[in-house]
Amino acid sequence: MTEGSPGKLIFFFAIPLMLGNMCQQLYTVVDTLVVSRTLGVQALAAMGSADWYMFMVPGIIMGFTQGFAILIANFFGASDNGSLNRAIAHSIRLSGVLAIILTALAILSVPPVLALLRTPSEIRPLTRLYLTIYFAGIPAIVLYNLSASVLRAFGNSKVPLYAMIGASVMNIGLDILFVVPLQMGIAGAALATVIAQLCAGLFCTVVASRIPEISLTKDDFGTERNLDKELLRLSTPMVLQNILISIGGMIVGYVVNGLGVTFIAGYTATNKLYGMLEVAAVAYGFAIVTYTGQNYGAARYDRIRQGFKASLLIAVLTSAAIGGLMILFGRTITGAFLTGSGPEVEEAKVIAYRYLVIMAGFLWILYVLYVVRSMLQGMGNTLVPMISGGGEFIARTLMALVGSLFMGGTAIMIGEVAAWAAADIVMVPALIKRIRQLRKLPAGEKA
Known about the structure:
Layout: H1 6-39, H2 41-48, H3 51-77, H4 81-116, H5 124-136, H6 138-153, H7 158-179, H8 186-208, H9 225-257, H10 261-277, H11 279-297, H12 301-335, H13 343-361, H14 363-378, H15 383-407, H16 409-439
């Protein structure tokens, strides 16, 4: 990542990540389709009534593992193999502790959180069952995210792609097997996801263990408080950022759950497509973090400036293409999740498409967010992105609690775009300021 055209490096590094994310989103979509078409609108609403709560758990995991990967990428860019191996070893140890604590807390918190979110009583048992099984698979989510983050820190985006393709195929097959012939219901959909995630994590771990630069010894795992502090310094703001965003989303969920099962179903149908809308943005984000981290470690600040310009152009063009396709074919896509007849289903379809059009029309704001946030994180600045998460929280919460009093469910939809814009307002000036500071440094001098 320290040599060659920044735009080409970022784009082609992101392609496998993008395909991997698409595969991951594919099995989320298949989950939804199988459940909605086999078990009905209430089961679909059960899966979606705690979406933001579900997002919080992998969000915490991704915050930690991405933060760890920033330091790993820095050491790799600086060719410091000793520090590199110690950073990986300490990341493994911290991740193990995280998996144990988070699994226990998540499972125990399911009943009170569902009550707090006002999950409708007719779907609450289904939601509780789905979440409990999903959260029992947290160690598998940790395994995949850590191993994939390590691979990406080394510039390998292909193996996580292969892992996701395999996991997607497996998840689809298990979904159909568990839900239809074995009649395991919504529990089968959750179990299929956990098994697929575990297999993806094991595959990435085996490949990562064969990287020549990685040669872990017992001494690498020895307590080194300064290293642990540095890993946590980078990752904790990212974790808090995702928690803030999730809490804001849970407040939105509280309001949504008070609007009835029909609104929940339509809102869920589009929310399950959210991942498809941001699939390229997530890929660009991972690519930009790796690109920036390696060049920052190598003191190639001129390349960071070039990468910023190239990334913005690529991101805006991509968002325009995805947004246009979603607006054109959105009715058909959202309608696939909402089967049956009657006014309840038709109303849910209208809600789903309206929400999709609002997000697709302003998708470029989200893509700019990913570019700017990833550049800052790649340079070791995870504090400003965390503050931007506060901006998202405020915008989302105000629109849900206050805006919904005047605009009803439409305020929930507009609130998502408002949250993206609030984050951009916080981060864009900070990134521009940092790039100007780096421009004043002599070539090769460490920041």
